[in-house]
Amino acid sequence: MTNILAIAHKELKSYFSSPIAYIVLGLFAIVYGYFYIVMLQYFVRASMQMGQMGQAGGQPPMNINQDMLRPVVQNLTVVMLFLLPMITMRTYSEEKRSGTIELLLTSPLTDFQIIMGKFLGAMGLYAAMLAVTLPHIGVLFVYGNPEWKPIVTSYLGLLLMGGCFVSLGLFISSLTKNQIVAAAITFSTFLMLWVINWIGSFSSGWISDTTAYLSIIEHLDDFTKGVIDTSHLVYYLSFITFGLFLTAKSVDSERWRG
């Protein structure tokens, strides 16, 4: 465990010793702040209009979790499509380009320790991205009355979904020494996992069910509602495990080629 944490610390430090971490965090903060302000203005305006009409038509009152925070989280996942490839693109491709992959593979470390260290390092930067959003949530608790359980489950879902992207990004990065190629393939793969359920929307039966299950975004929806379904946990954890398994096989083949 000590070796894994040491590699994770090294990876996280390398992010902040280059412009990558600051670019990713800066872009994320700007885009998230924009979505937050837009949805907050919409929520305030809609609440005032509903209050003036006396909730005519028997419509339920506005809910800050479902009518504001949930759309923000859904928009947040779109940002992840663009920013997470920037985090994972260098994990192995940079090692290959600089020639340090041989030193890493011949060090007294197991493939499992190396992979988990890189995975936790990338997840550390991703967690820092999510931490940027916490002050905004704090403002809602100061001036509003949101439910805390859907917020917690939303962050849990985002962490799991991010873990899926990171594990797959590690595998793709291990296949090439070019960071740009790694980022482009990673983004394309993420996008395919995002829109695969569109195929099912034009079909029915097992095709619709299968594409809906494979869609990585479909499993996040219940988390944003405050619901933790074991089927979604199994999907995300299985996805992460499979991505790390593919990375291990790729690294092992690199060791034999070396």
Structure description:
By secondary structure, the protein is mainly alpha-helical. It has one domain (2-257). The chain contains 13 helices and no strands. It has helices at residues 2-16, 19-52, 64-88, 93-98, 101-105, 111-131, 134-143, 148-173, 179-195, 197-201, 206-214, 221-224, 230-257. Helix 1 packs across helix 6 and helix 8 (148-173) runs parallel beside helix 13. It is globular, with a radius of gyration of 21 Å. The two termini are 26 Å apart. 31% of the residues are buried. The model has no long low-confidence stretch (mean pLDDT 85).
Keywords:
258 residues; mainly alpha; globular
Shape summary: globular
- Through-space gap between termini: 26 Å
Count of alpha and pi helical runs: 13
Kindly state the mean pLDDT as a whole number? 85
Class per helix and strand makeup: mainly alpha
Rg, Å, rounded: 21 Å
Bin the helical content.
Answer: over 70%
What are the secondary-structure elements, in order, as H or E?
HHHHHHHHHHHHH
Q: How many E strands?
A: 0
Strand content: under 5%
* Largest sheet report: none
Catalogue the unreliable spans. Answer: none
Number of domains: 1
